Amino acid sequence: MSWIILVASGVLEAVWASALAASKGFRRPRPTILFVVALVISMVGLAFAMNDLPTGTAYAVWVGIGASLTVLWAIVTRKERASTARILLILLLVASVIGLKAVS
């Protein structure tokens, strides 16, 4: 159960990071509200997962999921450019997250 909550919290990390960028320095209310809600839920989920999982592993998985999805979202929405190196590095990050889960 902790892994499911951790993955969901990692997804919410990507949501709040993207909403933060969309808020334009907290000047746009809807993305700002989404940022705050996703941030709080993401942190609560991470804290809950850390009750059962090692802190370092939980944090690395949370950041890895959030970072990967944030970059992928930026590529899909054409805010960042896709390149072979960028895609390979995202895949390496995802593989590392899977590896951490496998050895935990």
From TrEMBL:
Keywords: Cell membrane, Membrane, Transmembrane, Transmembrane helix, Transport. It is found in: Cell membrane. GO terms for cellular component: plasma membrane. Belongs to the drug/metabolite transporter (DMT) superfamily. Small multidrug resistance (SMR) (TC 2.A.7.1) family. The keyword Cell membrane applies. The chain crosses the membrane at residues 31-50, 57-76, 82-103. This is Multidrug efflux SMR transporter. GO terms for molecular function: transmembrane transporter activity. The lineage of its organism: Bacteria, Bacillati, Actinomycetota, Actinomycetes, Micrococcales. It comes from the Bacteria. It is a multi-pass membrane protein. The keyword Transport applies. InterPro entries: EmrE-like, Small_drug/metabolite_transptr, Small_multidrug_res.
